[in-house]
Amino acid sequence: MNHQRRDTLKAGGGLGVLGLLAAAGFIKPELARAAWNQAAFDAKNMDAAFTAFGAGKPAESADIQITAPDIAENGAVVPVGVVSKLPKTEQIVIMIEKNPNMVAASFNIPDGTLADVQTRVKMGQTSDVYAMVKADGKFYVTKKEVKVTLGGCGG
Questions:
Q1: Which of 116 and 2 is assigned the larger pLDDT?
Q2: CA–CA separation, 25 vs 31, rounded Å?
Q3: Pairing between strand 127-135 and 138-148?
Q4: Which end of the chain is more exposed for a tag (fewer CB within 10 A), N or C?
């Protein structure tokens, strides 16, 4: 059985449906770009990243929990999770203070959705991992230090 052929056909079929939806006007490419915050992802320090999101100086909150290892054996794949217990959570942003680009991930949380995200990030060195949450129009933040024993961002 040739699984490669089957996988190619599946991918091609999905792209075909996506192309039809775009051609029919149901999907507009510019809508996907509208959510991209280029200034935030290009920020080189925490204050610039907060400003790019419109957060100013976010308040510390104990209602945000970061799950990440205390010591990451491989900086190339560090599992990070964020749970917000703040009501009306709209957005969760994961930032790594000592990475060349601070913002590692940004998630928009739809109304009525559990504010719990999980991802893997790349860390070049031991650093604080920040979780910024926008809830009910206000910004909150918490942080956790993660020690990296093997470099991930060129280290």
A1: 116
A2: 12
A3: antiparallel
A4: N
